Amino acid sequence: MSGVLGVLLGSGGASRYQMAVGQYSDGFKGIWWIYYGFGIANNYYPIGGALSPTTFKGQTIQGIYSVEDNVGSTWPVTLQVQGDQPAGFATAVTMGGTKYSFDTWAQDYGSSLTVTINIATATFTVSSASGIANGTPVQFTTGGTLPSGLVANTKYYARDVTATTFKVATTPGGAAITLAGSQSGGHTVYFAIYTKFSAATPTPSNKTGGRIPFHPTINIASPATITFSAHGLTNGRRVLFQTSGALPSGIAANTIYFVVNAATNTFQVAATSGGAAIGTSGTQSGTHTCFEVVDVTVE
């Protein structure tokens, strides 16, 4: 296993992942923090974590996240998966030793474009159809009125896609819809659909079971010592590092290491659990970030 690559298969078709715990403001914790802005298109803010592997049942995982620590416990634990996935595609996630069974399923769209509509040909034109392919789920909103035959906030599937145009069907690969009547105002097409599976009644406190990221110092020595006040890590815990500049030689970014020789404000790292502490050499620069790596099971 190299870096954070690899998967351990659990029982019952579950997949076990290694997640580097990140954090954004207000206690959001996971590999992604999702900012719920105005409208349908949400914005993704990477917070530095890493997940291995990156797929579940062949579909890309966009986020595993929760709200904890300094926020109330009413927010759900959520798995977010790329694409148009059915309810029941995922049934539960286990974090920090607690299993959260999904009882909520929802879908939304991550990208949008202004679109013009030719009623006679039922053709939709955008500046670029990049990200839209035959079979891509799309939906439309309007600042005025859509033509008859097209319903706002309803899922359709793209077909006959060219560089800047497409038609839509009500089912994947189905017949193109026909349009009639008149239209007014500006229209928007939304695509890049994603699916969210959530546990609506999660338990409070540290759901991931991991420490939030922190910014340590690393000395050049053999073995090297990593320093951060009251870091909270114990021997055997897994960590990885990222940096805004350059890490010293001997420690590679996005590679899992094991904590050894942990003290209140310092620790060292080894390539294997209980192994020899790693030494560093050369130079370093920038601000380093240490993430704790935890196990997450999705089923």
Provide structural commentary.
This protein has 299 residues and is mainly β. The chain folds into 3 domains: 100 residues, no CATH class; 81 residues, Elongation Factor Tu (Ef-tu), domain 3, CATH 2.40.30; 76 residues, Elongation Factor Tu (Ef-tu), domain 3, CATH 2.40.30. It is built from no helices and 24 strands. β5 and β6 form a beta hairpin.
List descriptors.
299 residues; mainly beta; Elongation Factor Tu (Ef-tu), domain 3; 11-stranded antiparallel β-sheet; 6-stranded antiparallel beta barrel; 0% helix; 41% strand; elongated; disordered N terminus
What is the percent of helical residues? under 10%
What summary fits the major beta sheet?
A: 11 strands, antiparallel
* Share of residues in strands: 35-45%
Alpha-carbon Rg, integer = 23 Å
Extract low-pLDDT stretches: 1-12, 31-48
Mean pLDDT: 85
Compact summary:
By secondary structure, this protein is an all-beta fold. The protein is 0% helix and 41% strand.
SSE arrangement:
Blueprint: E1 8-9, E2 15-20, E3 22-23, E4 28-30, E5 32-35, E6 43-46, E7 51-52, E8 55-56, E9 59-67, E10 77-82, E11 92-95, E12 98-101, E13 104-118, E14 123-125, E15 137-142, E16 156-159, E17 165-169, E18 187-199, E19 217-218, E20 226-227, E21 238-243, E22 257-260, E23 266-270, E24 288-298
Antiparallel strand pairs: 1-2, 2-7, 2-24, 3-4, 4-9, 5-6, 8-9, 9-10, 10-18, 11-12, 11-24, 13-14, 13-18, 14-17, 15-16, 15-18, 16-17, 19-20, 20-23, 21-22, 21-24, 22-23
